Amino acid sequence: MLKALRSRASKHDHRAFLLVMGLALSMLDAGCKTAKTKKMEAHYGPSESVIEVVAVLRRHVPDDTYRFPPATDFTGRNVYRSTLLRLESIERLHADELRSGYMSPVIAFAKGRSLERLRAYDLAAEHYREAARRDDALADEARRSASLCEQIDEAISIGIDLQDPLAEPDPVREIIDSPEPVQDGQQVVAEIDERIALLSFLLEEAQGTHYAAVIKEEIERADEVRAAWFVHHRHDTTDGHLRAVAELRRVVQRHSASKRRLRHILALAAYFDDLAHEYVDAIPAESIEFDPAKFQELVDPATHLYQSVASHDGTPEKIEAARKLEAFLAFTLVVDRDRFMP
């Protein structure tokens, strides 16, 4: 009888041991799944705190965005734009928690850092001023940043700028402003030079800070606007074609260290490409007035420039240049087939 009881107790203990082990394994498996889920959420889920967003932004504030493209987050979005969007999202989702305003200075300052990289200098200055009013620890840096953003905004307002071709016309604004069309190349150059002079002065003050890259980008844009004006008005100015080429080459030379250097070369190549098409449209290849030598003077630089950009591996400009080169060579074959015959 005693032997039977011992055997039954032994079996009971064994089943209990198996039950405990099963529960432990199931809990371990659940813990693993929870860890995996949290890891996925950490990569792809929404930001849970302001500190998390600001930490990412702070890491990329010193980046030289004149020489290198802006950093991107895991979605491929510009990190400065994504920071702004995430801060606004947190403000909406956690409005009750943030109602006391204890994080408002940090949020305002971070928005200022994001907006200045998105060329919204006036809005950046407003957020810096707000941060300075609300937090003494941020006040000095916020005021300096606000002042610099305001000066940059004032400088880039001088002279002409590229217009949005898809913008809806505003009749009221046209009546109030009544802008006169600028047709004087000397006036355009003088205004753009004044803008660049002010930006260059600010650049000296901003050396050693992230604003140096920001100001260099604005100087580069001013040179692009100047070149674009001469390209657009090449038929309205004396020696317009030569001046447009000179202005485009000037941009390439002045900004050879820029992240946009390949785009500048592409713009110059596209100009020769456009001129070649315009020449054939005006003087058909079948016409006796067609000058093969003059046409060749447009073909050679366009081909060379496209080839130079197409040789840069790992860039989007390589693909664009290669496709444009193929299309341009196909155009030249149609114009002058004999040149390519064996």
Layout of SSEs?
Blueprint: H1 2-44, H2 50-60, H3 79-93, H4 104-117, H5 121-134, H6 136-156, H7 171-177, H8 185-206, H9 211-232, H10 240-254, H11 261-282, H12 292-310, H13 316-335
Helix pairs in contact: 2-3, 2-4, 3-4, 4-5, 4-6, 5-6, 6-8, 8-9, 9-10, 10-11, 11-12, 11-13, 12-13
Could you walk me through the main structural features you see in this protein, from its secondary elements to its overall organization?
The chain has 3 domains: 116 residues, no CATH class; 53 residues; 83 residues, no CATH class. Helix 5 packs antiparallel against helix 6. It is mostly helical. 72% of the residues lie in helices and 0% in strands. It is built from 13 helices and no strands.
